[in-house]
Amino acid sequence: MTEDRRKFIRQGEEARREALIAAALSLMAESGPEAATVRAIADRAGVTAGLIRHYFDGKDELMLAAYGRIMGRMTENSLAAIAHVGDGAEARLAGFVAASLRPPVMDPDAMGLWAGFLHLVRRDARIRAVHRATYLEYRDQLQRLIAALPRQADARQLRADAIACNGVIDGLWLEGSALPDAFDEGELVTIGLQAVGAILGLDLAAHLPPPFTDEPAPPETRTE
Amino acid sequence: MTEDRRKFIRQGEEARREALIAAALSLMAESGPEAATVRAIADRAGVTAGLIRHYFDGKDELMLAAYGRIMGRMTENSLAAIAHVGDGAEARLAGFVAASLRPPVMDPDAMGLWAGFLHLVRRDARIRAVHRATYLEYRDQLQRLIAALPRQADARQLRADAIACNGVIDGLWLEGSALPDAFDEGELVTIGLQAVGAILGLDLAAHLPPPFTDEPAPPETRTE
DNA sequence: TCCAAAACTATACGCTTGCATAAATACTAT
DNA sequence: ATAGTATTTATGCAAGCGTATAGTTTTGGA
Question: Regarding predicted confidence, which is higher, B87 or A6?
């Protein structure tokens, strides 16, 4: 009764770090980078602000960890779509492209997050390193899928094709995420498949994967 | 001698507004959105902070004006490259694509600026309107160039082609701006022309425009 | 059972932000 | 020459920022 100090239960390093990262990402996705203050993050994570400094050397460290988490998740989401597709290189590539142009990868919140971090890329060397690694990893995945296609191409051509296809996907992802209602349902998937197919000399649209996977609806990016 | 108050000369609305917009853009390009504080902007424009409120209703208004300025300029820069190209629709399209993938359009500073504003797109309706208008205007320009090509395509196909080509350009622009040293000199121009050509069924690379225009070197985006 | 270590809270400090307000200056019209 | 007005400076304020630090609670092992 003296002073009702907040009750709490210990949760340990792993859980708290994850909770703080998730809180930072959700705030940033909703309301932009400037909304992700230490107080707001702590509040959403159900702790007080001081705890951030207990688990991270500072806010910058938390943001760096959060960036790594979200970027990795986006590549994972694209890859997960083709994990169980076994029937041919073309189908796998088509699945990868389509997954990148559909939720939860193509998503306004995801783009808000990505944009919020992007401007940090130029100032913070460690953020830049994460960006570079993520971009190259994604492109390598794509290049591997392209290399598996039944066609002949030397290393130089393979690199150029991967860069071009990655460009199409990135550009369409960006525009579809930024202006969701400027495109019809599934329009960007079709366009993306046609474009990638044209670049590689294939008819990828023929492999148009089913619009729904086994999951009913993945509504949010931000939920863990 | 009493108190050395700062000397000044009157410059009038037009000049001051432009100076403040230019200052805001240059700060943002250099060091990100959070560096563009009212004090820093005023300082760079050679005035004191209070003047911003005299010419704009608030900082948000200044940022909105600045966003309109930079986005318009980027489309202009792409269009300027083909203003004096008269020999054929393919050559004009090739010039447009190439210009979008070279300085001053493709440029780390320009991308920093673009990214800095992008996350405002989701919160501020007026910023979003500018974004939408700029994107659609750019795409319409591209679509007009595509429509002028000697080939047959219905309206639906024309729209899809424009979206796809715009996607390639945007994606390559983004990656080349974000990671300039990940690509060879001129590599993205070549890849972009090949990709757009493949999508449209042309050999655009044959029209590869000269690497230099009549200007010696446009070094900076941020200078007016 | 109790005690030491770790987890967590609470508070305050210094700094920066955008903005309001009031005073001073430079220019223009007369 | 001078008065008037728009332009510009100067100053202060309330709010919010990240962080440092000290104190309190929980927890698990001796």
Answer: A6
CB contact under 8 Å between B182 and A132, yes or no, is yes
Q: Could you tell me the fold of the domain covering A11-56?
A: Arc Repressor Mutant, subunit A (1.10.10)
Exposure string for A5-43, b = 16+ CB within 10 A, e = fewer: eeeeeeeeeeebbebbbbbbbbbbbbbbbeebebebbbe
Residue B211 banded pLDDT, cuts 50, 70, 90: low
Q: Which pLDDT value is given to residue B118?
A: 87
| Distances in whole angstroms, Cα of residue A98 to Cα of each of A91, A101, A159, A181, A196 | 10, 5, 21, 18, 11
% chain B with pLDDT above 70: 91
Domains of chain B, residue spans:
9-56, 60-207
CA angle B34, B40, B43 (to 5 degrees): 165
Helix (H) or strand (E) holding B10: none
Tens of pLDDT along B147-173? 999 988 999 999 999 999 999 999 999
**B37, B101, B119, best to mutate vs chain A, most A CBs in 10 Å:** B119
Q: What is the mean pLDDT of residues A59-78?
A: 92
First to last CA, chain B: 38
Superfamily covering domain B9-56: Homeodomain-like (1.10.10.60)
The DSSP call for residue B209 is: -
Nucleotides on strand D with an atom closer than 7 A to protein CB?
7-12, 16-22, 24-27
How many beta carbons lie within 10 A of that of residue B25, not counting itself? 27
* CA gap B196, B220 in Å, rounded: 27
Query: pLDDT (tens digit, 9 = 90+) per residue, B88-133?
Result: 899 999 999 999 999 999 999 899 899 889 888 878 889 999 999 9
> In 3D, which of B182, B102, B151 has the Cα closest to residue A128?
B182
What residues have CB less than 8 Å from B153, skipping those under 6 apart? B161
Beta strands in chain A (DSSP E): none
- The closest of B54, B72, B57 to B16, measured between CA atoms, is B54
Q: What percent of chain A clears pLDDT 70, i.e. is strictly above it?
A: 91
Instruction: Check B194 against A160: CB less than 8 A apart.
Output: yes
pLDDT of residue B218: 44
Mention the CATH class of domain A67-207. mainly alpha
Q: How confident is the model at residue A211 (pLDDT cuts 50, 70, 90)?
A: low
* Contact between residue A180 and residue A208 where contact means Cβ atoms under 8 Å apart: no
Has domain B60-207 been given CATH number 1.10.357.10? yes
